[in-house]
Amino acid sequence: MHGFLLRIAKRQEPSPLWRSALVLCGAVLVALAFSILLLALRGISPLEGCRVLVMGAFGSAWALQDCLLKAIPLFLCSLGVAIAFRLQIWNIGAEGQFALGAIGATWAALTFGAQPKFILLPMMILAACSAGGLWAMIPAIFRQWLGANEIIVTLMFNYIAILLLDFLVYGIWRDSSGFPMTPAFSKNAILGTIGTSGIHWGLVHCALLGLLCWLFFRSTRLGYEIKASGDNVQAARYAGMPYNFLVVLVMLLSGALAGWAGFLEVSASVHRLQPSIMVGYGFTAIVVAWLARLNPAGIALTSFLLAGLRAGVENLQLDLQIPAAFGAILEGLMLMTVLAGGFFLSYRIVVRRQT
Amino acid sequence: MRLHLRSSHIIFCALLAVFVFSQPSLATDKDLKIGFVYVSPIGDGGWSYAHDIARQAMDKMPGISTSYVEAVPEGPDSERVMLQMARKKYDLIFATSFGYMDPMLKVANQFPNTIFMHCSGFKTAKNMGNYFGRIYQARYLTGMVAASMSTSKVIGYVAAFPIPEVIRGINAFTLGVQAVQPDASVRVVWTKTWYDPVKEKEAAKSLLDVGADVITQHQDSPGPQEAAQEKGVFSIGYNTDMAKFAPRAHLTAPVWNWLPYYEKIIAEVRAGSWTPRADWPGMAEGVVDIAPFGPMVPQEVQKNVLAKKAAIIAGSEKIFVGPIKDQNGTVRIAEGVVAPDSDLLSMNWLVQGVVGTTE
Question: Is A34 within the bounds of a domain?
Fold first, then answer.
């Protein structure tokens, strides 16, 4: 009897970039194949479906602009959680930190609305980052000094933050119209667009923060310590690295970045605080961070692609009247296949002939 | 004389030019492309479904093509969807949730040749109108039915958000209840969501637990109806006839019939006579009605309610007529005064007899 034996073996060294790219493309293709099958079941030509999806996402200058706008908050939240993940601190609380950032920025905008733009906007950013950062620091302190699990605490803090936001917009910050939202911000509190494009300056913030983040991990001692401690806590402690301090620091930075995203959402997109800014960026950010393997450039690309998928799915709905649930299925399929594809980056399958 | 004629002629032409060029759309004879933005899936059986029934009927009209995007979150996401529609040269865009107001205003400013219609807000622009229906009239009638069928004198109200639209509905319903049973109370639970069938059902259950024996709702799904049927008590639906979701529990429901209104807007846009304004049609215009009564509603009750309905349509009966007190007992609408629409549109207080807060 001859046969084949399949054996799964762990890869000894990290996968090179080309293999990651190959696996990613393969995963997307598998997801698309399933989606096409589903479209065909609805009687829609697969080619037409793909065309509408891709054109809606990336097929025009407009579409690209929409994707960039949608990717901005996702990128910042994801950059934030990735910093904590480097230290193996599981910050699931970006959603709440985003809410706190929006609240902080709104507080500054409503309190100092008469200040000139060049003073007010930095104040709003400072308030947003402090609020988001301090909010994220609480679970870090609980973890290091009370032994509380940060996954549970950050997760629960999301709900507290969202309810706090609700409490403010339904209560003391409520607009005179009676609707649950603050009054519109003054002109000085609004972050404008770049030139005549529809893209706000948040894109430049993202580029700079992404670069800073990359440099931080590449060239600073603290960045190195975070990476080293993430790889091996015992060894890092033995080497005299300030682990408690690092945990608090990464959560502070993590929360500050999500808070910054909250600032951009109220200042550049919505121009006021309202509950509808909470659409789950903080949760999607976790997926983005993992898909991008915590790499800032990868996070930028993944945020952009996910935003594109969202826009493409809307285009599918509009042009071919496909139900919204189909969009959710497509997005879910993509995430599932890409994450499953990660298996092939850490393991390889060895085929042996049995004799 | 000659000179006079000429100048009047010039004035006439100038006025005509102003009139013609101030019309955002010149779509008189060409085909109309109409887009809808919905906050929940059209399969919700409620709010979006009611709009979509009208959309489907419009789609069959000659020279009209329609499309929609469903389950669009309020906020920046909706802005992107409306932008997509405007760029694709849709002539007329309807967005049917309150949170689409500001995004729509932004998009409307960028696309002056597209006509935008926002449902349930309060802002208008040169090419943006706003509309809603006097569903509170139907709420009052269903309140009468609920009170007639309640023995515990506690009626549960599952409500989405404490905003004027919903508060007005609760107040009208409660006034209807009190017209039949002056000492009954209406207990409100806020879900803070338009569409979350599980949460809506849970909220209804919590009301059943405190003794409510009729459940009504201001949500986008029939979740509360199902909760009532499971407990074996009665319910009043909303948006569409929800009898098929809970046949044993469903008494009636305030329902929407958007088609007559949408047909009117289409005709205006085609004729070039559309103007930006705030519309608030009601039962008399056929936009608002109550669903057929369930078999358990006694004939006597049906007769009373239908008589009241006829009076509302005839205009001889108004809902918000003083004296009406708020929860603290303060008179908010004085004796004999009919509350003006501006007060109704910004209503942010609950009438006496409602158990609940506006936060």
Answer: no
